[in-house]
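Attaching the record inline, Q. Sequence:
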Amino acid sequence: MMHVIEAAIAYELSSAYWGRGLARLAVQAMISELIQRYHVHNLTAVFKRTNLRSMRLLERLGFSPASAEQHMKHQVEPGELLMQREIRQLRKTRSNALRG
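Structure, as predicted:
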């Protein structure tokens, strides 16, 4: 049985830098680090429901809205939304191992 490691991501970017792809690059870097170095299998992010930019960013990065049960487990406030992403580890086949 595999032990599931969870992590929450957080970010804040000044409005002066919106629309340049910087948030996407930063969140992608966080996700890569969490997967490769810490072997995280589940990621979560909480943001204000009115923050549509964060919702779209997280959706583009593979996150989806969490269930009501997950909202309760993570004690998400009424004005917030929880999104999650499950990391699916690919099994290394012999051909993949030989390639890299």
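The helical segments are 22-36, 52-60, 68-73, 94-99. Residues 91-100 have pLDDT under 50 and may be disordered.

More tomorrow.
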